[in-house]
Amino acid sequence: MSAAVAALASAALLLSGCATTDASASAKSETRTVTSEVKEVSIPAEPKKALGMYTTDLDMLITLGIPLASQQPIRDSGYTGFPSFFDQEALKGITPFTNYPEFNFEAILKAQPDVILNGLGYDKELDGKLSDIAPTYTFNGFDGSDWRTKFKTVAEAFDKTEQYQAWMDKYQAKVDDIKKRLAAAGKSDLVIGPVDYYEDQVSVSCYGTPCLVIKDLGLKVSPLADGEGSKLSAEQLEQLNGIDAIITTEVPEKDGANPDAFAPLANNKLWTSLPFVANKQIHTYDLEMIYGSPSGQYALLEKFEKALLS
């Protein structure tokens, strides 16, 4: 944290120390003490200005119906606003600020949050820095586990289990409907490949929400994605033959369109002869959907529905 931010945070603590004993007792009764993945923390019983450290944290706050601070984070790397698949009504009047990959502590302090939800628990120093600004609930949302387990724990910490269950029920109902329609269409055994093209190689790997959705729908993930996945050169593309459809991630263009990730392979005969290429079964989705959050996973589920059943 910069010296300026530390000074401002210290000043805020000094001012808060001027409160009367009665006010302190009242404040204590308006908090709840919970245990995060790193420590015990007292958070507001009814937050008024919550801030998410990453967009996935923001989405959890929105889904749980927790009031937001007036400024919230987005990532860099081509993004200028909140993900389009987030609840835009909940984001009305909220100003985005870039907070990844470089953390913007000044903007976080300026937002004056009364609680921070931090899913970047892999950064061991971050919780302490954020706790100087506001009570911080930290967990590691990027440890490779099913993000829904973390979401449930967050909901329990903030006493929002009803909202969590409402989302789970909505998601499961959608899954059940799509599975039924896939079966009716004879598509229950489709093999899906999470495929990307980068630095002259095609990679097949299973990470984040795509694998969760594929498995929830009872579809098969290409064995090329097993373990650490596979990286294929332009001469090895015939290994993709057993895949019925592929999904890939891209940062959307300014107009919302998805760029063609595989344009460099347009003249490669091994590529163009693959069944999923010939059948136009290449489906691109927003990079932000890959990271675990309610709106991201539901939006990806809808992408699968449109891709496989339309």
Please identify the structural class as seen in this structure.
alpha/beta
Percent of residues in helices: 25-40%
Number of domains: 2
Q: Which overall shape is indicated by the principal axes computed on the Cα atoms?
A: globular
How many helices does DSSP assign? 11
Order of secondary-structure elements: HHEEEHEEHEHEHHEEHEEEHHEH
Mean pLDDT: 90
User: How many beta strands in the DSSP annotation?
Assistant: 13
**Which stretches are low in confidence, meaning pLDDT under 50 for 5 or more residues running?**
11-16, 18-27
Supply the CATH class of the largest domain.
Answer: Alpha Beta
Query: What is the assigned CATH homologous superfamily of the largest domain?
Result: Nitrogenase molybdenum iron protein domain
Over the alpha carbons, how many angstroms does the gyration radius reach? Answer: 22 Å
Q: First CA to last CA: what distance? A: 50 Å
Described by its quaternary structure, the protein is single chain
Strand content: 15-25%
CATH architecture name of the largest domain: 3-Layer(aba) Sandwich
CATH fold-level assignment of the largest domain: Rossmann fold
The largest sheet, given as strand count, sense and whether it forms a barrel, is: 6 strands, mixed
